[in-house]
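Async update (no meeting this week)

Hi team, since we skipped the sync, here's where things stand on the single-chain job. The sequence we agreed to prioritize is pasted below, unchanged from the tracker. I ran it this morning and attached the output directly underneath so nobody has to dig for it. Comments welcome in thread, and please keep replies under the output.
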Amino acid sequence: MADAGAIRKLEVGTLTRADLSDVVHREIGLSRAESANIVERILSHMCSALSEGQNVKISGFGSFILRDKGERVGRNPKTGVEVPIAPRRVLTFRASQITRERIVNGG
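Output:
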């Protein structure tokens, strides 16, 4: 897949769905509607897998990993009052070695 940064430098620093579909449109040559549909379908499949408790691994990019955190006691920093924090499921991302190297080397 093409490097989105090589096609258009982002002023805000955020890569959006529209940016992704624009890359698909330019690199593959599909219509803008088809490109947007592909991006939406990929994101939808990823969200579905995560909501079903599956981890998502994209080779050469990284892994989206679900973790279950247990209940714990937190503290209000202003008052010092202890407050229970409910158990929850959190999503973490672990970049692949390739992605980490590209980030460190600037592209």
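Quick observations from my side:
Residues 34 and 47 are 20 Å apart (CA to CA).
The chain has a mean pLDDT of 90.
Reply here if anything looks off.
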